# Entry
Amino acid sequence: MTIPADVLRTRAEPVADINDEIRALAEEMIATLHTASGIGLAAPQVDRLLRMFVVQVKDDNPRVFINPQIIGTSMETVRMEEGCLSIPGLYADVVRAESVQIQAWNERGRPFSISADGLLARVILHEYDHLDGVLFLDHLSERRREKLLKKYDTALKTV
Ligand code: ZN
# Structure
């Protein structure tokens, strides 16, 4: 799904049961992530309003986060360029916490928590936002956001 799809602006519902259907969805999302050469994908991006996302950075194994909860974020922030599979072609520097502590359930129904920094923290925070209908553009100034969206609209018209 790409903007301006409503599903990208809607708060997702918790996963009620980590069953075969959810495992199949997680697998499908990981496959989609690989096809798109992305590093993170949230369920609303594939038109499912569920609180889950998948992440894979560098040589790491894919990680599945179901019903994630952010426990804490660092005071230190860092500026890093972001893009989004739902907003193809647009990139911008976004300021976010440098590290994050998060708990979630994996696709086998096991709870886990991790502390992440660097690119992993960045992608976790970006994907978590998707579960609340928030896009990376929302972290930019209004002026910057409008400028980027204008560029996006123009690109769509010329395709
Ligand atoms: Zn995104």
Remarks:
- Helices lie at 20-35, 118-131, 142-158.
- The chain has one domain: 6-157.
- The domain at 6-157 is CATH 3.90.45.10 (Peptide Deformylase).
